[in-house]
Amino acid sequence: MLDIRELSKRFGHGNGTVTALHEVSFSIAEGEFFTLLGPSGCGKTTLLRLIAGFSSPSSGSLVLDGEDIAPMPPNRRPVNTVFQNYALFPHMTVGQNVAFALDALGRPRSEIDPAVDAMLTLVQLSHLKHRKSVELSGGQQQRVALARALVAKPRILLLDEPLSALDMKLRKEMQVELKRLQRETGLTFIFVTHDQEEALTMSDRIAVMSGGRVQQIATPGELYKNPANRFVAGFIGESNFLSGRAANGLVNVGTAQVAMPGAADGPVTLMVRPEHVALGANLPHALNLTGTVTQVVFLGTDSHVHLALPDGTALVARVQKSLNGGRSFAEGEAISVALPVEALRIIADGEERP
Ligand code: ATP
């Protein structure tokens, strides 16, 4: 539905030039919940603004339903945006805010009234239709902003960190709510966030960005299981990294060795998630190491056991009490550490760069 082709954006001139996006290319399918995820400054807002038409690309194209929309002004694009600060009209009622886009298009009341009522039902705010928007809670304002953006039935809804002003509990509720809205309307959402958990919770697919480049595009499960490089592995979930050396299908870490057929000879970076680190175990088809417990952090249902390997490498193991029969770990304790081969990933050491 939307094809982004070699899109670049530079700001400034001469020596002061900042390249906010470097030839970014990908496609979004109709009805997808697609997320742009990355740290501050990675270019996600720049990309969203290019899609909305608030700024124009330095090069590349944006093709929506087969048509290049790059030359189109924002109000002609079948795209709407929900901003972080909601940008509601404070002295209008909820109903007037939601009706605004259709009023501006000069649609008849007989069309506007039922459309507004349907949107208010969708966001569960029918009972507040006549309330002024300044008299609403943050979560309610967010729902009005969504209803207002959806009423004109855009082809794509762009959402720029729309939940970041809400407290944690409300934010979690709105994540579920947004996902429901997207499913029920069948619309295409492009959502911007720097919060990996939020992205994993809601998205069909995620584009992980860093330094103005897309590092990987995949489903949440695939990003977690098979990160393309060290940046993605470090940004999505928690990761342990080990340095090793591959030769003839064997990977050596310190004095331990494991068969990993297909590993290219030479230095390698291995990644393993904390929940796949087995403590007090020596397993077949695993890297069997020894370490020293440096710290135990209680997290409620789980604990994190921090370890140091003989060469100083730090590792974290996530330990579920229920699976370990209440075994506890003492700081300073020497312990065997098994990393099963099926949980080890050889990853590119770094990220996509110019
Ligand atoms: P955040 O999460 O902090 O909003 P972001 O990922 O959305 O970050 P962008 O706002 O897209 O990042 O910015 C990408 C880069 O482009 C940054 O280095 C930023 O400083 C630069 N940039 C953005 N807008 C402009 C501008 N109008 N003029 C100059 N540089 C800009």
TrEMBL record:
The keyword Oxidoreductase does not apply. One of its GO terms (molecular function) is ATP binding. Its EC number is 7.6.2.11. PROSITE patterns: ABC_TRANSPORTER_1 (PS00211), ABC_TRANSPORTER_2 (PS50893). Keywords: ATP-binding, Cell membrane, Membrane, Nucleotide-binding, Translocase, Transport. Residues 2-236 form the ABC transporter domain. SUPFAM superfamilies: MOP-like, P-loop containing nucleoside triphosphate hydrolases. It catalyses: ATP + H2O + polyamine-[polyamine-binding protein]Side 1 = ADP + phosphate + polyamineSide 2 + [polyamine-binding protein]Side 1. Pfam families: ABC_tran, TOBE_2. It is an enzyme of class 7 (translocase). Belongs to the ABC transporter superfamily. Spermidine/putrescine importer (TC 3.A.1.11.1) family. Part of the ABC transporter complex PotABCD involved in spermidine/putrescine import. Responsible for energy coupling to the transport system. The complex is composed of two ATP-binding proteins (PotA), two transmembrane proteins (PotB and PotC) and a solute-binding protein (PotD). This is Spermidine/putrescine import ATP-binding protein PotA. It comes from Rhizobium wuzhouense.
